Amino acid sequence: MEIDKQRRGERDREREREIVRGKYKENLRGHLSRGCTVKQCTRTTLVTGPISSTLYMTGCVNMRVIAIARRVVMRNCHGCKMFLFTPTQPLLLAGCDDITIAPYNTYYSSLAGHIAHAGFSLSINKWNQPLTPTSSEVPALDDSRVWHLLSPSNFNLYQIPFQTDGTTNGLVHRLPPEYEAAVKRSRDRLTEWYNTVEKAELTDLQTNQLASTIQARFHDWLECMGYSKELESLAKYRERS
Question: pLDDT tens-digit profile of 190-199?
Answer without folding.
Answer: 899 888 888 8
